[in-house]
């Protein structure tokens, strides 16, 4: 039998098995769907949408081109990407996945970056946002804002390490002269403003059309994200019910002792590899395991991003000529870097914060910039007002879509 036929048979078997498990376990499937929908409804949609809309507008008005000229002397020598990559990097950290992939694809479609530059850029610009790290993971699951500090440091420092490694991806000689020139080239405000002006002139869309396109594009992306969240939440639940998770965990349990990590964390790690939210919840619930082991495991699958997020990114990258394989390899590297950095930083940060396990001392996470209890209040407000915001924007999306369809018909 050929490899192609075996691949077809394998996928058919897996999908059939999943369908059968859904039929046999309708209650568990429904509860898993609700769990994924709740995460998207309350947190993902309201926290990501403003960043995506603003990003589209910034690209349309040429602000990104302006930033790109200013950041060229930094981004080109370090990561072998154009200066516009600095904007994607910043927005990726602020808004979280999969915005880094979406913005990279947008720049690639506008021919502002090459395919190899896009593969380098997307490898280190997709990261979790501070809201998810501090709000959902640290406060929501571990009830300890302090662990958010070490998770965030490991996560973002790990991404920088991935960017430095991935700079060697692709033909090196093609951009060598340009990188050397960028390293010594000064910042030119005049050239940056000229790029901004030229980009605005090229875009002939009026403000209303540009804003409508930004809303439509952003909501469509988030609807896709919501579908993947629900799908992988159900998939994770079904794999646990039919025993696949336990089988994979037993195999993984043979490796964890090599790193002096408790085997009790094998099932949460497998769950986190599929979907980070469930993985974080299960990891925080494991008893009689050191907090350091829990955070190292959480840091790994948070950086790996979970197969759910990777499927979202793969779907977005499929719209362009950017390959998914370099991104997947970068996620494995990011997970390893983040876990190692967590281990190395644990003792210094534990000493600095008077004990990471002592959550009773409520200190501002970003003192003195944010007050104590900031992330707890933010998560509470999102749970209350997030669904209202999501519903309102979906109505706006439907109105814009319907109006444009009617204009097209007429």
TrEMBL record:
The answer, when asked if Acetylation is one of the entry's keywords, is no
Q: Look up the domain of life of the source.
A: Bacteria
Task: List the lineage, top down.
Answer: Bacteria, Bacillati, Bacillota, Bacilli, Bacillales
Keyword set, alphabetical order: Membrane, Transmembrane, Transmembrane helix
Kindly indicate whether the keyword Transmembrane belongs to this entry: yes
Any matching Pfam family: Gate
- Transmembrane feature ranges: 48-71, 78-97, 131-157, 210-232, 238-258, 295-316, 328-346, 384-403
Name its species: Sutcliffiella tianshenii
Q: What is this protein called?
A: Sporulation integral membrane protein YlbJ
Q: Where is the Nucleoside transporter/FeoB GTPase Gate domain?
A: 44-141
């Amino acid at each position: 039998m050929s490899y192609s036929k075996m691949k077809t048979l394998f996928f058919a078997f897996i999908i059939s098995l999943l369908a059968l498990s859904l039929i046999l376990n309708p209650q568990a499937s429904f509860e898993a769907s609700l769990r994924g929908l709740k995460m998207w409804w309350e947190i993902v949609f309201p926290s990501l949408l403003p960043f995506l809309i603003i990003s589209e507008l910034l690209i349309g008005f040429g602000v990104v081109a302006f930033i790109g000229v200013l950041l060229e002397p930094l981004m080109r020598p370090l990561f072998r990407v154009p200066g516009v990559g600095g904007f994607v990097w910043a927005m990726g950290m602020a808004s979280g996945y999969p915005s880094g992939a979406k913005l990279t694809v947008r720049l690639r479609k506008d021919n502002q970056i090459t395919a190899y530059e896009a593969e380098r850029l997307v490898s280190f610009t997709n990261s979790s946002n501070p809201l998810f790290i501090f709000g959902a993971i640290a406060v929501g699951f571990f009830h300890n804002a302090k662990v958010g500090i070490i998770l965030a440091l490991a996560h973002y420092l790990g991404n920088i390490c991935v960017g430095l490694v991935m700079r060697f991806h692709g033909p090196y000689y093609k951009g060598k002269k340009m990188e050397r020139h960028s390293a010594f080239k000064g910042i030119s405000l005049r050239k940056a403003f000229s790029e901004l002006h030229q980009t605005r002139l090229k875009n002939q869309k009026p403000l209303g059309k540009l804003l409508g396109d930004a809303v439509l594009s952003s909501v469509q992306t988030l609807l896709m994200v919501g579908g993947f969240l629900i799908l992988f939440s159900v998939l994770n639940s079904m794999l646990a019910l039919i025993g696949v998770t336990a089988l994979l965990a037993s195999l993984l349990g043979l490796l964890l002792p090599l790193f002096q990590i408790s085997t009790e964390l094998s099932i949460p790690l497998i769950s986190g590899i599929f979907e980070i939210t469930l993985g974080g919840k299960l990891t925080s619930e494991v008893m009689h395991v050191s907090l350091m082991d829990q955070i190292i495991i959480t840091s790994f699958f948070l950086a790996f991003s979970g197969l759910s997020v990777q499927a979202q990114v793969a779907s977005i990258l499929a719209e362009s000529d950017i390959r998914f394989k370099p991104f997947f390899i970068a996620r494995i590297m990011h997970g390893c870097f983040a876990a190692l950095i967590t281990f190395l930083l644990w003792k210094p940060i534990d000493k600095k914060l008077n004990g990471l396990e002592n959550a009773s001392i409520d200190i501002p996470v970003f003192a003195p910039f944010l007050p104590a209890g900031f992330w707890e209040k933010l998560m509470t407000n999102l749970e209350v007002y997030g669904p209202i915001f999501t519903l309102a924007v979906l109505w706006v999306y439907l109105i814009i879509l319907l109006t444009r369809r009617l204009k097209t018909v007429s």
